[in-house]
Amino acid sequence: MAESLGEQTFVRQLAAVRSAPSEGAEQVTQALAGEPLGVLEERGNWVRVETAYAYPGWVRREELGGEGDPGWLRPVAADPVEHARTLLGTRYEWGGMTAAGIDCSGLVHMAFRACGRLVVRDADQQEEAGEKLSEADLRSGDLVTYRPPEGADHVAFWVGSGRILHATGRDGVGCVVEEDEPAELRERRRAFVRLSPCADLPGGR
Questions:
Q1: Is the same domain home to 90 and 165?
Q2: Domain range for 14
Q3: Looking at residue 94, which CATH number applies to its domain?
Q4: Dist CA 13 CA 34 (whole Å)
Q5: pLDDT tens-digit series, residues 172-200
Q6: In this structure, what DSSP letter does residue 22 have?
Q7: CB within 8 A of 26, min separation 6: which ones?
Q8: Does one domain contain both 20 and 92?
């Protein structure tokens, strides 16, 4: 089907959103059935879209043409941490957004989204969008970000008493876990953040 630039479209079912118009390109996020996507560009069998949380990427044309869901951001949970706990044991998947596979920032995004609150997608974006805190001000549901030499590359929910809840790809784990903050991560702490919905996104306050 032909898409109209600037108009909304929807995927038929869960679809990978890729960094480039190629099956071999990195999955950067996923589009869920019913959520709106803006059409940015067309290239052969691929369409460049932008998600409702302002994240661009490429989707195969054949995966588009689904129906919109007016309730795609309807709250189904009251607390992001409690929703994240329903995903304990979910396997780690880079760019994943569902109980079939999820990454660290996808877990944060989907936990807030389950509460009807749309937030940005990636760890560095979540750090930048949030209110910076001291460790003494942390409460359950706040975020801890972790660093390589520059920028945040991992994010976790703080749940109190030195424990975090996160999706981790580390060897021997590779899933969503709630655990004492590992020493290796503690040494890489970058920021403590209280994340709120972005005012310029749907569901923003």
A1: yes
A2: 8-63
A3: 3.90.1720.10
A4: 8
A5: 899 999 999 999 999 999 999 999 877 56
A6: S
A7: 18, 19, 20, 94, 95
A8: no
Instruction: Let me know if residue 44 belongs to a domain.
Output: yes
Q: Which two tokens stand for residue 16?
A: 């990978």
Question: What is the CATH classification number for the domain harbouring 57?
Answer: 2.30.30.40
For residue 205, being part of any structural domain is answered with no
Q: Domain count of the chain?
A: 2
- CA dist 42 and 121 (Å) reads 23
How many angstroms separate the CA atoms of 58 and 103, rounded?
Answer: 19
Q: How many whole angstroms separate alpha carbon 56 and alpha carbon 36?
A: 12
DSSP-assigned beta bridge partners for residue 143: 157, 193
Could you give the angle at the alpha carbon of 161 between the alpha carbons of 155 and 165, nearest 5°? 30
Q: How far is CA 165 from CA 14, 42, 63, 181, in A?
A: 25, 39, 33, 9
Contact of 37 with 68, CB cutoff 8 Å: no
Residue 94 phi/psi, 5° resolution?
-60, 125
- Do 182 and 90 share a structural domain? yes
Q: In whole angstroms, give the CA distance from residue 67 to residue 138.
A: 41
Q: Is 20 strand, coil or helix?
A: coil
Q: What is the pLDDT of residues 12-54, one digit of tens each?
A: 999 999 999 999 999 999 999 999 999 999 999 999 999 999 9
Residues 84, 172 within the same domain: yes
Instruction: Tell me the C-alpha distance between 98 and 128, whole Å.
Output: 24
Average pLDDT, the chain: 94
